[in-house]
Structure formats: structure tokens, C-alpha cells
Amino acid sequence: MPDDAPPVRKIIHVDMDAFFASVEQRDNPELRGKPVAVGGSSRRGVVAAASYEARRFGVKSAMPSVTAVRRCPDLIFVKSRFDVYRAVSQQIRAIFADYTDLIEPLSLDEAYLDVTVDRHGLGSARAIAEAIRARIRTETRLTASAGISYNKFIAKLASDQNKPDGLCVVPPARGAAFVAGLPIRRFHGVGPVTAAKMERLGIHTGADLAARSREFLQTHFRSSADYLYGAARGEDHRPVRVHRPRKSVGAERTFGDDIRERTALHEALGQVADAAWERIERGQARGRTVTLKVRFADFKTLTRAQTFAREVASREDFLEAGKQMLEQFLPTTKGIRLLGLTLSKIQRGDEDGAGDHAVQPSLPL
């Protein structure tokens, strides 16, 4: 390797399989093998998580409960228990910490690990991932999938490749080809709106994206152009960071029909709050500012924000703040087509503490 070549990292992305729903099925044998949705109810709310049995019917997180029931009439709803999920997450992170200090949690149920330094002399990143998965199964009675590669972007894609309870290794020599064969909607960082725009431009796969010039991407995707250009070629130089900066967490929903009536708007905002609070809890975020976003039928978009002296500690307080701000727009003769609710001024120790670290490029994947 030339002296000026970047070091080859060994990155594992660990993703728990249907985490919330799997915890519920573990703790309640009557739910095992059945379609389960965590959160919401059969009448209102949104799905926070779905078991694999429910996913086969098209049920997924952030889906309105009424839609989920239409897709899966036998769906069983169970109440969220975030205190339990957090406790299990702490167990899992304690396992991670036995293999590396370089852990970047993305949420309660997934994290990046830099295992370039082989602390226990297991011989490869794959062996480390297998050891971690085995301990998770033994100590929590849950399964995890893992992606192993030379950067974060591909490791995250790889962890989803053989779910559930699977493992996928993508070495540097296979990185570009692995990315080339994937649908663009699988790319981390490419949301539904960007994916739809790409497809209108004839970009459907990683290979299609790699065929576009940097100038083309800068014209159409501006600040994301460099990331997309590198990702399409299997390149991602971001290090695993122990502390991840995050400015806000929230959710929004566009309605099929514009809404004017106060009760219906409050109920819709409750569904948005459910989806947002699930993300807040999953990411263990805490903040003091609640922001409401309102888009009217004519596409005019307005926001209101309220900052509190203390952190917003519950979903009920979060929703109540949103309702109070929503009242500032009511009554309205114009229909409302979108509502969004966000928590910001996140209190998480946001400085990046890990930075770049010296690595040992000898450890194989």
C-alpha cells in the first residue's frame, strides 16, 4: 500500500432484527409466529415497529394503524415499552464495547463499529461480527444482522442484504460491483423524494448513478453531489464517530385529502407525533424546542416553534405543544395538506469525540 493511501478500515454495521417487535415476541410467547405491530392501535396512531410476520403483508413502521389493519386483518397491536427497549439496547452496547471503543449508535437497535484493531485476536472482521451476533443471541435471546465492509456506506447496505439473522461481507475488491447492482432506493441517504427525482432522470441503480458525471450530479443534487458520486463508486471516507451531531428529530405527513376540521386535524397531528416520538425514543434524543410545520392546500408553508426551559420529556407534552401551536392557524378556510412536528435543541453531547484514528490495515474482512 502506498504511504499516502488512506488506511483500510474494518467497519461492522449491526442491525437488530425487528427489534421492538422481537422483544415483545421474546417476552410474550403467545405472540411468537404471529403478525405483531408495536405502538398505535386498531383505531388510530401509527405503527412504531412490525414483526417479520406482519411485514410479509406490507406492514411497516410509520404506517397509519388503519392502513396496517387493512393490509393485515389479524394484526396484533401491543403497547410500546421504551424502558425495556432501552435496557436491552444497553445490554447490546455493552457487548459491542467488549470488542471496540469506536461505536457510533444510530438508534436503539443499530450501530456502526470500527473493529480495525482486533482487540481479542479473532483474526478477521467477520469473526468479530460472528462473535458479537452469537453473544447477542445468548445474552438477549434476540437476533441481529451484520454488514461488514471497508466503509460505513457499504456496511449499512450489507447488513440489510441477508436479513433476518444474516451476515454479509463486502471486501474492497467487490465494493463498486456490490453498489452497482443495488436499486437506488436502497442507498442510505436517498429518501423517497430524491429517489423519485433520480428515477425521473433515468437513475434506477447504483450503476446508473455511477454513469453520471460529478457535474451532472452537482446540477441536479447540489450539496449531495459529492456524497452520491463517491457512494456510487463504493467510496465513503467518513470515520466511525463515538458522538454523532444531530440537530433535530421529527416526522411529517402529507394527507391524501386536505383537512379543515379541528378534530380531524388534532387526530392527524397525534399520528404525526406518534411517528416522531418513536424516532425520538429510538434515537434516545432529548430537546427543548418543538416546531410545528403546516402546509396549506395552496402549498404555502408556515412554521411555529416553542422553546421550553426544560427538555420535553414525554410524547404527551410533545403533542400538547404541537396542538397549542396548531390552534394559532385555526379555524381555517384553507385546507391543510401536511403537518410536521419536530424536536430540536437536542441534548446529547453532540461534539464528535472520536475523530480519525490510527488503524491497522492488516486485519482481513
From TrEMBL:
InterPro entries on file: DNA/RNA_pol_sf, DNA_pol_Y-fam_lit_finger_sf, DNA_pol_Y-fam_little_finger, DNA_polymerase-Y, DNApol_IV, PolY_HhH_motif, Rev_trsase/Diguanyl_cyclase, UmuC
SUPFAM superfamilies reported for this sequence: DNA/RNA polymerases, Lesion bypass DNA polymerase (Y-family), little finger domain
Pfam families (alphabetical): IMS, IMS_C, IMS_HHH
EC number: 2.7.7.7
Cofactor binding annotation: Binds 2 magnesium ions per subunit.
Domain UmuC, first and last residues per copy: 11-191
Keyword Transmembrane helix among UniProt keywords: no
Site (Substrate discrimination): F20
GO molecular function: DNA-directed DNA polymerase activity
Keyword flag Mitochondrion: no
Cell location: Cytoplasm
Gene3D superfamilies membership: 3.30.70.270, 3.40.1170.60, 5' to 3' exonuclease, C-terminal subdomain, DNA polymerase, Y-family, little finger domain
Catalytic activity line of the entry: DNA(n) + a 2'-deoxyribonucleoside 5'-triphosphate = DNA(n+1) + diphosphate
Residues that, per the record, bind Mg(2+): D15, D109
Location (main, coarse): cytoplasm
UniProt keyword list: Cytoplasm, DNA damage, DNA repair, DNA replication, DNA-binding, DNA-directed DNA polymerase, Magnesium, Metal-binding, Mutator protein, Nucleotidyltransferase, Transferase
Catalytic residues identified in the record: E110
Cofactor: Mg(2+)
Family of the protein in this entry: Belongs to the DNA polymerase type-Y family.
Function: Poorly processive, error-prone DNA polymerase involved in untargeted mutagenesis. Copies undamaged DNA at stalled replication forks, which arise in vivo from mismatched or misaligned primer ends. These misaligned primers can be extended by PolIV. Exhibits no 3'-5' exonuclease (proofreading) activity. May be involved in translesional synthesis, in conjunction with the beta clamp from PolIII.
The protein's assembly and partners: Monomer.
Record HAMAP family: DNApol_IV (MF_01113)
Name recorded for this polypeptide: DNA polymerase IV
